[in-house]
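Here is one chain, start to finish.
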Amino acid sequence: MPVRVDKGNKTTYPMQLCPVIKQLALLRKKWMLPLLLELFSSLPKIRFSRLQRALNPITPKLLTQRLAELEKSGFVLKKKISHNEVEYSLTKQSESLRTLTALLKKHCIRHATSAKTHCTACSESTRCAMAYG
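Its structure:
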């Protein structure tokens, strides 16, 4: 049974305080990995509208939410270009995520037969190679 840490009226479990668990919780959210893959493939900057088209059928609301979470975590910078145009770029801190997602991609290709077939036939394979080597 987990140990409880009382903080006022709220009960927190030690695992909720763990920085590794917090980072993994961010990465496992819906659309987070596809978003990161697209950001790494679209260096150095990308506009919101292009991200939304690339990640179709993600909703604008969810894309905005995920980008805000990445910005809050220090992985993405948001730059307002005009009244309704926004550009996103990766920070130096995101390089560790690039390495992590590259390893994850290599693992999937190595261990999933369908991934090998799909990745070699994929029209995006050039961008993938640019992002992950």
